[in-house]
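Input record (one chain):
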Amino acid sequence: MFVARRSVRLVVTPKTELVRLFSASNTLLQNAYEAKKHNGIYDPETHIVRSPYESVLPDCNIPEYVWRNYKNWENSPAMTCGLTGKSFTYGQMYATFDKFSINLPAIFGLKQGDVVGLVLPNMPEYAVTFYGCLSAGLVVSPANPLYTADELLKQFTDAKVRLVVTIPELADRVKEALGKMPAGGAPMVLTDGAKCDSKETFAFEEILSKQVKGANRLAKPGPEALAVLPYSSGTTGVPKGVVITHRNMVAGLVIANHAEAIADNGENSDGLDSTLAVIPFYHIYGAVIIVGSCLSRGAHVITVPRFEPVSFSKVYEHYKPSHMFLVPPLVHFMARSPTITKEAMSRLRLTVSGAAPLSKQIMDEYIAKSGPMSTFKTGYGMTESTCLITTMPKDMPTCKSLSVGPPGSFTELKIIDGALKTLPLGEVGELCARGPHIISGYLKNEKATKETIIEGGWLRTGDVAFLDQYGHVNIVDRVKELIKVKGFQVSPTELEALLIKCEGVADVAVIGVPDERSGEVPKAFIVKKPGSTVTVESINEYLESKVAEYKQLRGGVKFVDAIPRSAAGKILRKNLKHF
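The corresponding structure, as predicted from the sequence alone:
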């Protein structure tokens, strides 16, 4: 068992002007907040901040943790497809994935540690496959359903998948990828009751219904066994296999289920919570928060295969969920779309936005529309931390709107400079995290592992941040996305937050482009609102008085139809360089 330690909480006044200005406003709220004891625990000798939240890490695998209380909600709906209405109760889903965990290895001769690829949209069968594989000690490698055959081939080959589960609509693309694998390919299992005539293609229902002679349950995997092998988004480099163990995943789920975290009612759910799951399950956000945390608390998960405005709005209006887990583009859509009514949003009790920065303008619009009974949080984490790094308390006051909260359960944080020296509170540098949810490294990539996981097991997040006097994390920007203009650092996020407020601007992204005199200069890509008359001149005029000269858009302004983003909502800045 892992129990977070306790020590004296210190409130240390930061030295930097940035923190002084940040903490100077709203003194009464700050004092009230300080009394709530949500401060990180700071060690002035090491400059490390530890979590204020105590939790116990169970010595078990992922399915054992998620399904330990399922009988409390045995007859309640666990997952429902929002488009077809196909639904599983908790009892039905447990029985189904348990059967899957016995038959799948027996039929295909799989052994513990073998990798199964998942190329599936959000659907109930995803959870059946996910927990069925993990119960058998198999490794799950989820892939983006939008990947091309070549992209799938790279992941399948690197992960050495032995089997792929997908849907009929994606079968040709998956089959093309499998056919090019050096090992000669692998069989497919198709969902949706598909009839499979090929010797290499099998029906999902057949796996479940087949009576396999001599089939035995494989030994359950231990906490240190490899469990999930997602591939990083590749927004700053080549996708890498992220090695996540059962222990990492369980720790991530415990952090998410803390009463002060995403689970606003902890483990005391009455089974009445519901959420509309549009965040992709192949992403660590969806895997931990929805497939894991929601099901471990007895919530009803309504799946949406992909975001499409009309169908999403219809499903939302029908189910009126109590919880929503979103990324900034979805917050933007819900805040401004007339097809999502204020009445339907009044049922919300909790909304979490994560995976990318969210402008305060859009956040305020969403909060105003969702009503006074709803809590809004922003989440911070990454695949390499098995989702969460910080935990925003549920009573976070407005004076802390720039913060993403203190470290979550088990978590230690520090800020380092370019020489890897640990900096004191208030100093700006790269954020590092340590804990049982932090991965040990990347699959077959020692170089990337050494660059990311440094001495002492610290994860370099790649985010520029500072720890304020409460031991809370305040993100400034990404290390690799800062624009250097004549030696000055310019934050793309800062400029984007300003430009989104400009009349006629629907979406925006800023990158640095080469400049002979300045090294780099900022360039903006802007999506206009329908009917907008905004021009390059009006954009520059709007920004001229708001930022210093070196932050002006000397690289130009380009109007585009859409900003390229990952499924998690992150701006794909490297793609913009080719626009």
